[in-house]
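User: Second chain of the day. Same drill as before.
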Amino acid sequence: MSKLDLNFVRSQFPAFDSAVLGSHAFFENAGGSYPCRQVVDRLHRFYMDRKVQPYGPYPGAQAGGAEMDEARARLAALMAVKPPQVSFGPSTSANTYVLAQAVRVWLKGANAAIVVTNQDHEANSGVWRRLADEGIEVREWQIDPQTGSLDPADLSALLADGRVRLVCLPHCSNVVAEINDVAAISALAKAAGARVVVDGVSYAPHGLPDFPALGCDVYLFSAYKTYGPHQGIMVISEDFGAELPAQGHYFNAGSLYKRFTPAGPDHAQIAACAGMADYIDALHAHHFGAEADAAARNRAVHDLMRTHEVAVVAPLLDYLAARNDVRLIGPRRGEDRAPTVAVVLDRAAEPVSEALGREGIACWAGDFYAVRPLQAMGVDLEQGVLRMSLVHYTSAAEVAQLVSALDRVL
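Assistant: Same format as last time:
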């Protein structure tokens, strides 16, 4: 079976049975997706039967620790990395901040430069820009003000003198949504002697990464946007992780997954992240059958999700492109973008999102912490953008409902 079985998919999400959440067509997925049933069940079980200090010499502690280890091991296998390469933290913003503190020490006094973009959500921009306080040169890879795109030729110019040690970029922006060619960009940066950090928060909901294929050194994303609990997840290469100074307790410095987690872990939510792997495996089993290789299962599910999303978002992109009173941010084709669709209106966007709420559509408006790209594209931040974000559980009927509501409200 190569076509996504939407009835099966939606049966995996309790939200669709909720009298509260099920009352609206949900287009706020970029702010946080619904958790799958497997995650909810695991979280409930942990609080009911495992909520003690994990790894102790008694049954509840052993079970809790085993489930935390299971989450790390199974997610690592899906992303084709070793379990110690996967770190959990309270959020991606927090994980990025901790990583930046390690880089701060790593590059101090090195006469080095880093590259950031103005396509990013601020979480993957502000923390890196603050390294200028330590004398580290910060170079900005700027987007095209018309399209919001990043041109690799511009990055090549920034890398030309050989002083750049780190390139930080999004897999895709939370407002521009264009999917950047991370593998090609990583190769370009590596050839110039730079490490690569990728913010995958806006892409990972549409398929977990195949980390080795991307060629980057760090990939960060949020479990609560990938159908899980509110945790940040960081994947880091073994050599870069060893090169950076540890940020956790000194006696944990020998453990890669503890080196960059200074705060105590949320045991229950880490354990519940194994439900994300349960869900991916359930999708694979339902659509494709048995497959022993976890990374192959992940790639197949990734492609299944993307194929559905590209088809379902097309009518929305067609409708918006045909209107003269809105400006579509990012690529016109669904194949080139995540299905996170931001538009500039001829008026303030917030009242429009409120009107859509009254029409049974759940979405929002504002700057979404993407102040830099919106300013670069000449968007009035007081008016903001209207953002409608889909994922693989979004139906064609819901998109039709959204288009009909937009026709009444705009």
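The chain has a mean pLDDT of 97.

User: Great, on to the next one.
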